[in-house]
Amino acid sequence: MIDLNVLPLYLTAVIALLLIPGPDMLLIASSSLTYGRKVGIYASLGNATSGILLTILAALGVSALIAMNPIALHVLRLVGGAYLLKMGWDCMRTHPDDAPQELEHSNKMASTLYRRAVFTNLLNPKALIFFVLFLPQFVSTHVATSSGEQMLVLGLLLNVLGLLFNLFLVTTIGVFGQSLLKNEKFRNNQHKFMGLIFFILAIWLLASQLPTPPSM
Predict the structure, then answer these.
(1) Confidence band (pLDDT; 50, 70, 90) for 106?
(2) Are 204 and 93 in contact (CB under 8 A)?
(3) pLDDT averaged over every residue in the chain
């Protein structure tokens, strides 16, 4: 379904992208460090879920239509920034006494971080533009498959490799997270740490300059 001659170059580009720190990596790493390996895994799955949705939108051409509308991108960025600020504020308002209770119910924290990872990526216009600008570069005219189908396969491959990389990151960081979770002082402030991460992500999104996609 894709040009195998293009595949080595594509895989090289994907690996290079995965090694560049970004908001996704920050969210997943901080989730693992703050709440443990299980929560980090769910955050990774949330990131992969949003990536698959963005891939489908790109393959259908919906992402390109949104990316061509500066007002839509601006609104999306404001909504995404507001969402991250709300998440940060909610974390900051959590009472320290709630931390041990939530740690005992890791399923709740895992599902919460899964949802936050999904929406953080979906509400990031830079992620949407990335799929519009990146995937079409590796669409080949030397295969009978349509450009949409090729973008779908390329995007799914990107998400699978990204998930594997993030799971490796979670496993590595989880070792340090376990020791931190045994520290009472850290447990009393873990929500504030996570709130700070969301504030950083909000500033990162609101202050970033969006690339301009080529005109259709």
Answers:
(1) low
(2) no
(3) 83
